[in-house]
Design brief:
The chain is an alpha+beta fold. The chain contains 17 helices and ten strands. It is globular and about 55 Å long.
Length: 403
């Protein structure tokens, strides 16, 4: 069986069984090669930690290619014109920018995520986490995702951006984000694209109105600060704000829910000691990675394990596989070890696209886990959870618990 056949047999991102547990398939991919052609998605799958880590830093790859090539030069078709609002929004955000534009915007936005900023947010995050968990406990339980995991990071990012609590659109932040993120799945359907386009139009329209309000009535928030930056266009501001919301809560939501599913399934609890809890959170980020795959375009030919991957191809860096690679994490790579000290997981990426919000995500995660351990020490499942169908951003529809 050659590498392509192995990928086809082991890797099935549209299968509910695979999405529920992709790790045995990852082990097969790692055992049979370093690069596997996967025809259904027209991608090269890269499953090993060392390769994934190196390629995240390799400037011969990029999140986009349009800073160097036209679609025709790169051998790709231009995006469907009907999807233009999504692509305009996405293509002006940090996640999909390369070159000078990426460096310029990252330098400006990184000021919002300094250690001092995160330290200043700590009391707010802890207070929000305590209140949300308190409400869950007072109700005797409920959906941990809807009641705790989702509201916390969305509220934090909304406060950072300066989205007024009284604005009706604040309740749309999570639905808008979910619709837009649907386009990051493999081969999204036309229905998914329509929802993403509608969300892109609505979210962008709201932010344009909010930016106009902040121009005349500035506040102590990120949008007001970005308005004063001459190097940013309004579209770059809008795309930056949307990206901060999308990227700023997906990891926290899914690590919280996936993490508690893992803990409850293994019958273990983290030690509430702050240092030990921080170590446990890192292990949960590694063990069941919320973002399973990160894609890159090949801008110049590369070679992986003797396989030449040409310019114009796309590689799928399998974070979930890399984070359980025994070559890096030893013979216990597939086991949950809440005390794992040597844990250089790549859940937040690496290189120039390393997640700016990683310190904030870690703060939110430790705060919410600490409060659940303190206020709900007997937390238990109330029902078997239902998984979402998505593979790239992997999580649950809900996690019903009792306290």
């Amino acid at each position: 069986m050659d590498a392509a056949d192995t990928a086809d047999a082991a890797f099935d991102p549209w299968s509910p069984e695979f999405v529920a547990d992709p790790y045995p398939a990852y082990a097969r991919l790692r055992a049979t090669g370093r690069a596997h052609w996967y025809a259904p998605a027209r991608q090269w799958l890269v499953p090993h930690y060392d390769d994934v880590s190196a390629l995240l830093r390799d400037r011969r790859l990029g999140r986009t290619y349009t800073h160097r090539f036209s679609h025709e030069e790169f051998g790709r078709e231009a995006p469907d014109a009907a999807h233009e609002p999504f692509h305009t929004l996405n293509d002006h955000g940090l996640l999909d920018l390369e070159g000078a534009d990426h460096s310029r915007i990252r330098r400006l936005v990184s000021k919002a995520f300094t250690p001092r900023t995160v330290e200043r947010l700590t009391p707010t995050v802890r207070e929000l986490a305590a209140g949300l968990v308190g409400d869950l406990v007072a109700a005797g339980g409920g959906d941990l995702q809807a009641m705790v995991a989702e509201p916390l990071p969305v509220a934090v990012i909304a406060e950072m951006l300066g989205i007024p609590r009284e604005d009706e659109e604040r309740a749309m932040l999570r639905p808008w984000s979910a619709a837009i993120c649907g386009m990051f799945e493999l081969n999204p359907s036309e229905d998914t694209a329509r929802r993403a386009v509608a969300a892109s139009v609505e979210f962008s329209s709201y932010l344009r109105q909010l930016i106009a309000r902040r121009r005349s009535e500035p506040g102590d928030d990120l949008i007001s600060a970005l308005i004063g930056v001459a190097e940013l266009t309004e579209q770059e501001m809008i795309s930056t704000c949307v990206l901060l919301l999308n990227a700023g809560h997906e990891a926290t939501v899914n690590t919280t829910v996936n993490g508690w599913w893992t803990l409850l399934g293994n019958g273990v609890r983290p030690d509430p000691d702050p240092e030990k809890l921080s170590t446990a959170v890192e292990e949960l980020l590694r063990y069941d990675t919320p973002l399973q795959m990160f894609e890159r375009w090949v801008l110049d030919d590369i070679e992986i394990g003797g396989v030449v991957i040409p310019r114009g191809a796309e590689v799928a860096l399998l974070f979930g596989s890399a984070n359980r690679d025994p070559a890096r994490f030893g013979p216990t790579a597939g086991e949950l070890d809440l005390g794992r000290a040597d844990n250089p997981h790549i859940t937040f990426g690496a290189g120039i696209h390393y997640c700016l919000g990683a310190p904030l995500a870690r703060l939110e995660l430790t705060a919410v886990f600490a409060e659940l351990l303190r206020q709900a020490p007997r937390l238990r499942l109330a029902a078997e959870p239902r998984r979402k169908p998505g593979y790239v951003i992997r999580g649950f529809e809900e996690l019903l618990v009792e306290v």
